[in-house]
Amino acid sequence: MPRYKLTVAYDGADFCGWQKQEPQDPGGAAGAGETGAVRRARVERLAPGREGRIALRTVQAVLERAIREVVREPVTVTGASRTDGGVHGWGQVAAFTCSGDREAEDAEEAGAAGGAPGGEGAGRRGGGWPVSRGVETLVRAVNARLADDVLVRAAEVVAPGFDPIADCTSKGYSYTFHSASERPLWDRGYVCHTRHALDVAAMAAGARALVGEHDFCAMAAAGHGRSSTVRTVHACEVVELAGAADNAQRVRIDVSGSGFLYNMVRIMAGTLHEVGRGRMAPEAIGDILASRDRRRAGPTMPPDGLRLEWVEYGGRGK
Length: 318
Known about the structure:
The protein is α+β, with helices and mostly antiparallel strands and 318 residues long. 21% of the residues lie in helices and 27% in strands. Strands 1, 4, 5, 6, 7, 8, 9, 10, 11 and 12 form a 10-stranded mixed β-sheet that branches. Strands 2-3 form a two-stranded antiparallel ribbon. It starts with a strand and ends in a 6-residue tail after the last strand.
């Protein structure tokens, strides 16, 4: 049974994140901290077998449905990163296993049962996706069944035991600010608008304090669900992007690490934003980490400016 690794891109604006979720009660109040993107992403239909419940639109569910239509059998799609509602992906990695050359298997079964060519069931094509059919064809077939805001960029055959989560060695995210008095229009869903001019040099100095192995309890959302808050950040850089229109300033944070806590990157971005606008000294970041006090770090920035850029496995590239 072949296992396929997919590289997936998506616009997260109209998704309730990556991971499939239980249907919610349509009559209930919005969850604490629920973003507009999450509210927009609710699918106005009843979930099968869940009378009175609304199915939530997630990337995992949409992708899984498209793959099932292609391979014509149930599959489970596992993703490397459980991005939140409104967060975008460029290099998300997902994997699934399906049947292989079912025609050969059917022929063997028919022979064992005493069947003859041309008999009942002859020529029947089963489900699955044989490796011989090609990954390029698989990508085209899946993309033809996906909505416009999801795209499979590439596919490859991997070992049967490949685990997108456990085998991951590093992930890279970016967070982009749009600094201007007027809010952005055309790409408003992909940047975080701030009216404060940002000191990029100060932000870069603060970012360097985040690199290395630290206890990031101060930069994790409550209820992160992890037994340890120690994480290793491999790199954290702040750059000012050229070509911003109408005297706007575009600043991007690029961060990579072996793993991240819930909302950790968005809180890192919020803390560096405080440094950039002069409300916090770059030198304070080390003390914030040492305090393990979430109240001392910056705010959790909106999901719009966050994008999963790449996921790396065993040094094989991004």
